[in-house]
Amino acid sequence: MKSKKWEFLGDHGQFRLEQPEKSSYLYFPLVNEAGMMSAITPNLHGEMTSGHNTFLMEPVSVLDLHNSKASRNFWVFIEGSGAWSVSGNSAKQNSSLFSAEEEESKLEGGFLWHKVTRDHGAVGLRAETVNFVPVTDDKVELMKVSLTNTGNNPLVITPTASIPIYGRSADDLRDHRHVTSLLHRTFTSKYGVEVQPALSFDERGHRVNKVTYGVFGAEAGGESPVGFFPETEDFMGEGGALDWPEAVVANLEPSVASGAVLEGYEATGALRFEKVSLAPGQTVSFVIAMMISDDRIDLDRIAADYLSETRFDQLLQRNESYWRSKLDTVSFHTGDNEQDMWMKWVTLQPILRRLYGNSFLPYHDYGRGGRGWRDLWQDCLALMVMEPAEVRNLLLNNYAGVRMDGSNATIIGSKPGEFVADRNNIPRVWMDHGAWPLLTTLLYIHQSGDLELLLQPQTYFRDVFVKRCKDRDLTWTPEQGNKLLTRDGQIYEGTILEHILLQNMTPFFHVGEHGNILLEGADWNDGLDLAPNRGESVAFTAFYASNLLELADLLLEMQAKNGQNTIEIAEEMAILFDTLAEPLAYDSIADKRDLLQRYYDSIVPSVSGAKVKLDICQAAGDLKRKGEWAMEHLRQNEWIKNREGYEWFNGYYNDHAKRVEGDHPNGVRMTLTGQVFTIMGGVATGEQVGKISSAVNQYLKDDKIGYRLNTRFGGIQQDLGRAFGFAFGHKENGAMFSHMTVMYANALYKRGFVKEGFDVLDSIYKLSADFEKSRMYPGIAEYINEKGRGMYTYLTGSASWLLLTQLTEVFGVKGYYGDLKLEPKLMKPQFDEAGKASVETLFAGRMLSIAYLNPQGADYGAYRIQSVKLNGETIPFVISEDGCLLNRNVIGSLAETGLHELEIVLGE
Could you tell me which residue ranges the Glycosyl hydrolase 94 supersandwich domain spans (predicted)? Predict the structure, then answer.
């Protein structure tokens, strides 16, 4: 059946989709800050959890959404007609016995609530089911089912809620599934069913368990259930199933009353309510609370807090207000209202990633919770726009994960600044990890002007692995803790600037046979993991080179703004500033490696704790020499031209030290990553950027799925990475990988190739919003596969980059060492009919509405800023490149509350 596209309702991102169950793999996130993480489908399938070891519902992958029968369900037994599921999740409704004409459905989604309306036309019964996770301190999901008689005759119905209670670790799904059910202790009460397993069997050991899982319910006025079917096998009946349970189909009397205690069986929160007679037009509602608690549940409190229609509606309204206030910190208004609403959902995604990490949604079935090192820094990019208040502390805490050898912890705890040793003592270093923190920190400094952050002290991470995980220090024991110590046993601290210098200087010397930085375990592309010995990442050599130049400028800015003439570093680090003592010939790979080895030896097993001071100008000069050498090296050695006359940068060398890109017997090999960072960091000249764009359009652009991450390499590439074992056009092997595609657009905008950048962003939006192919709700997916389907929805770093690119490059709203810089790069179609494009965003703690007026309808490149008004008053501004600078004090002097209007007139 041909599916309709979702459509937006109003101006707050709410959307509607008809017959949503006709599309596969759809799910929607429901979450709160307390730690409840849910996923829900149009058929109310999905999962509920507070962590890897505490799933209320069974953990699911996307295939389980259609194959498993263990979903949220609410049944009605209709006298004269039989059993009917309000979610459509019944054997009868999923079979030819129930025609599509008998039932119509629609889904509505908002921030952050989910509503499914289903009409049983044959009997005249409508069910409206609303689910959300409230903004409270409880790990709870609420569901309200409203049943309305839409026919002309009275209906007599018997309602039954049924939510299977898995109640244990995801590891138990196939490891002792039955044995762990023997641990279940199930209790019935006035309002529902609780399960508190006696022990937890998981990676932490066989421990006494306190965590409790509960399903509770009441009729809208507070009337409690009349009985329960708490054991799954009794609820289903012999030969029955969760999508056709005997207890409902045969309309059995409840088998268990309140106050029962049962042991050793799989449990279901099956709550039977009193029989109801519905007159035509009459509605009856039921409220269900599904909860995870750290111990037995206070039922009186839960009933008072959640189990009434009045309370449900109050909490739903509060939920909408809470999420709307978060998302209203940035809003775009262009000539395309649908795309503006779509961006609202993109804006939500970085917050979702902070709350879910990379786990606990059906496509992310590989995760065990938490985020990776790269995620910490990429997600902060958007949080600076969305939730700026905590960013400084987050940045400061994150730097505690850096090792003294320039690598970092790879297992991130759930609390800010919490890092633990590598799981199962498996050492791995992603060579790109050191590059991201500076980019994020620079954004913060430009937004805030807070150069003082760089001088804040922070500890270093320490575990058994040293020398970028190439060696183990057997003198270290876990009892020493995970902080670097000095030789006299004191915890060592260095400034944030020292951490950043280490992360960017050590890779400069850590080079392969062609003079580029070694690939090690992988770079940004985790799939390039099979070239740890001789593989090189040209792409990230470009990133580190641009970072070195950024650091040089940063030091000089510290001197200019703060009058700082020296920087203080660990005495062992002085060797890395080779030009200040014995300058190296950077073409000598052996000399670079030797210097790095000497540095490693000096910091194992500990550091002295002594500091040295360097002249800030000389230190900046050293960094500049390194960065300029690396850039020239790339231009001279990694620029390639193939037989067809196209030119671009090689991105990688494999583990046989062979260049990866260019002409090949299997066809042209090209990666998008190799182009992004050479463009973004300024390695590519303006002429080269144009040639790269042509090559990308020739070899990587595909009108069906967008800009591919790479061309077809052929074979599984055991000397490069597992990514090439994936089918071509999927995930890291030739899909449209949103993260790198958005960064490609960002790089093009940065270099002034605005039309080309616009085309890239426009393709991402059109691919995502083409529901016939993408089959995803509004937002950006991790990647678009060969069929055009959006994959791994919601949890992707590309959302942060898209939000940042739209705000700082397209609308040109950015900081410059604390001042506000406006440099719009809007194309003519992005202005509305009145020639206006605007954005609402936070800057310097003030909400600003920044409107660009383009009365002449000029396209980018033809307009300049003519005048600036603030709250209706013309104010002076400083011309800066193609934009203007507004002093931070002008913004900071405004009232802290309210929306302040900046009006910028553009003209030729």
Answer: 114-307
